[in-house]
Amino acid sequence: MNDEQIDAALLEALMQDGRISGSELTRRIAAPPTRVRARLLALLDREHMRVTAFVDPALIGRPLVAMLEITTAAASELAGWLPAIEEVAWCAHCRSGRVYAQVSVGSAPDLLAVLQRIRGLPGVSRVGTNLIVRGLSRPVGHASDARPFAFVGAATVPHDDTDLIIIRALQLDGRTPFRHLADLTALSIPAVRQRYRRLVSSGALSVVARPLPALLGRDTCAHLVATVDGPTTGLAESLAEIPDVTFVAETAGDADIMLEIAAVDESSLQHRVARVRALMPGSTLRVDQHVEVRATRANF
Which is nearest to 70 in space by CA: 53, 82, 84, 83? Predict the structure, then answer.
């Protein structure tokens, strides 16, 4: 196997299980163990790829998740400033000049505080807010079934402060060794491992690699905003079946539906957009193609 093939095999494995061991990777991949380990270290060091914990936002005290649509005269600069705001998990600068940002907060006053902070940034003229209620997400480039999520409410999985220490450490680095997690929590390694497995088996936590689309050859991505003519019952599920759709959300606010598409080229993107329009006759659809995406913190 050449380096490109080894990297592809590593990515595939890490997108399924971000904590897969180095020994298991060398067993699975038909290449010399030293090369596999070297490529793994190089891959984990890339700017466009992180292994991190994806968690129910309510579990970390941030049950309100919103997508902000920001009108600004300084889009490129704003996309650089937003990651410094703790509540911002993701932002995209689009060709239209708009910037989209996903935020998660603990309460309505917290959301208002974030909005006021962003409105005060240079060049910002308007911040539209869409509260994400429910939807589906799928890893970039995967044909697997989309994973459903629902927001606005309290976490139903029992957890304590020790669980939160583990979660926050894994959000910073999903491959944090159990030995280090044991040091952070003052627990034994078996006890930490048991807590981790309980959180994963409950569905509240998953640790996986989530590379930005460009690393997977998906250089043509877009954010779609729809105002739907009629009820949206079942629409998110139908949209999620379209290839290259990585995220669909039903929202409360200016929009009814929001989507993300990660396509290989312009032609493929337009084909996917045509399929989206066909599922929403009579609806208004805006397509904003990405210039730059910055994923700073993961939630779901």
Answer: 82
